[in-house]
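Quick illustration for those who missed Monday's session on complexes.
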Amino acid sequence: MHPAKTSSDEDLVRERRALGDLELIVCSDGTYVLDGGAMFGVVPKTMWQKRMPADEQNRVLLGLNTLVVRTGSAVVLVETGIGNKQSPKMQEIFQNEERLPASLAAAGVRPDEVTHVVNTHLHFDHCGWNTTLGEDGVVRPTFSNARYFAAAGELAHGRLQLERDRVSYLGPNYDPLLASGQLTLIDLHGAGGFTPGDARLRGPEALPEARIQTSAEIAPGVWVEAFPGHTASMLGVHVEARAHGGATERACYIGDLIPTHHHLDATWVMGYDLDPLTCISERKRFLEQAVAEEWVVVFPHDHQVATARVVWNEKGKAVARD
Ligand SMILES: [Zn+2]
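Prediction with zinc ion bound:
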């Protein structure tokens, strides 16, 4: 047993807060466990275990946060957890709980009212409920009326099935969305030069071509920005709302650039990160803006502190304020 408890019903909705004229809800696919060493890279265990206690197998307890943004006209979901397509062996390893459908229901979010789904990247623990394994054994899109968005570079990287990270890129999380025509691939400013029929995006032969978008906007007030490092094409998701007196309020789902509030220290990067030096510089770039403009930062894998505004402490380190 892990020292920290796993999810209970009162954990189904992690947080609900207003952002100006918008509503932010943090739902959850429950908790899962990962190796503590992998979560903290070269940081010595004597240091990280004070922040996150490890169990007897050196595992730490993490969350799977889905951000729901209600804008009035759109219902945007950022990330969809691990899902229900895990093999029994994988579920045994990760101890994941398949809670997102119950969490969305508890928050009053109907699957058919979701208009947009954004995946910051296509690792299995960020896009699992993009699709659902039915009792008939068929995998279908979970959000039938939604348009889904992911980085073209992420899909291309997943298609390579590299020995370092192929276990994280699972076709059933996104191929059914290509088949249904619901997936838009983002190639910001056309920097990757992706075309709809691009050989780099090619999956199983029968899949139709993908739709490519070179602009950042997902819905009014919601847009993406590239934050490379964890993966080369990872996206952060910005939200901007109108507040009283014409001011604006900002939030950002930062993805695995900063997986938990314990990773706000720019040098505490993960063993999973493909390019740790880029992670450090991108974290610094992100934190400068997030602190100065008092953004609500949403962490993907923090089951304790799902969102926080960030400040510099007396040592000049970024820390969660609330
Ligand atoms: Zn990841």
